[in-house]
Amino acid sequence: MDVGALETTILDIEREALGALEQVADRAALEEWRVRYLGKKSPLSQVMRQLGSVAAEERPRVGEAVNRCRDRLQTAWETAKEALSERLLNERLASERVDVTLPGRRRERGALHPLVRVMQEVEDIFLGMGFTIAEGPEVETDEYNFEKLNLPKDHPARDMQDTFYLTDALLLRTHTSPMQVRTMEAMRPRVPVKVIVPGRVYRRDEDDATHSHAFNQIEGLVVDEGIRMSDLKGVLEQFARAMFGPDQAVRLRPSFFPFTEPSAEVDVRCINCGGAGCRVCKDTGWIEILGAGMVHPHVLDWAGYDHRRYSGFAFGMGVERIAMLKYGIEDIRHLYQNDLRLLRQFARPV
Ligand code: PHE
Q: Is the CB of residue 288 less than 8 Å from the CB of residue 204?
């Protein structure tokens, strides 16, 4: 074997390998290069295999030349590997770079609708007085919406609550009062019954500043032995103070509901003027917030609570009414139009 030719081959291999290394651009190509020029089947290994055919006294020279070449390739590979790692890192850092001086993207925060807020507030107050919360169907039967509440068919008091009928027997409830009956029927004969019922109700009314064909009520019912009108007044006074302020007062005016006897309309001191008289209270100093009364004996008996042993009070308040008073909203329709100028006022400051 011609030693000179072998040495030339080794130099060629080195030149080729180093040239190829300059073209390497990623980790896969680098690994390919390593296998190709430093692996078992590399041209250098092939030269080593030919060493046997070299004259014995020349072998060390050729062997050394191969080893030097391999060392240089090895070193070149390591250098290239480090350079590549650094380049890849820099590229990644550049691509993931954030400009911390950019203004942030503000996240819009939602808020509870004023009606929901009032409902939750009312619920909290009554929960604090030991009431539980129940809910009932909006599609109600004539029987529960009217008859079991002492409003027989053709009773003139039905005119006050004309509604939407699905069939002769099925309608959209005009008030949450049917839940008085449903609650008592579910609870009998246990006492005390002490429940509030928030929910949507419907009336066949023309929409205007103070009327809506759909609105919300919160019903209250307490039944036990020895419940008296003064209990009703005390509970409502407690409620009014928690809701509107510690020096609130309530006033009961005689009224009529077929399912309570006696019945009352309940007023609070005008929230706007404190009782002095203003446009909101039409100069009376008082504002009506709910209807109430002692549960009618018929209603108690029909629902399974003997009126000779048990008595109770009930009330029903309009949620919209309270929200309008509390937040000074002058038109009920504002509560349904999703006008952001109104709703934003109830968003918590960010
Ligand atoms: N349900 C009556 C209404 O909607 C209010 C009410 C409830 C009155 C309970 C008395 C007792 O007008």
A: no
Which residue's CA lies nearest to atom 10 of ligand 1? Answer: 292
Domain boundaries, the chain: 3-95, 114-346
Within 8 A by CB and 6+ apart from 173, the residues are 136, 137, 138, 139, 140, 144, 145, 163, 199, 201, 202
CATH 3.30.565.10 fits 114-346, yes or no: no
Give yes or no for residue 258 CB within 6 A of ligand 1: no
Q: For residue range 87-127, what is the model confidence (pLDDT) as tens digits?
A: 999 999 999 998 889 998 888 778 899 999 999 999 999 99
293 in contact with ligand 1, CB cutoff 6 A: yes
Instruction: Say if pTM beats, i.e. exceeds, 0.90.
Output: no
Gap between the Cα atoms of 190 and 280, Å rounded: 43
Do 290 and 266 form a contact (C-beta atoms < 8 A)?
yes
Would you state the pLDDT for residue 349?
57
Position 347 confidence tier, pLDDT thresholds 50, 70, 90: confident
Residue located via tokens 């209603």: 299
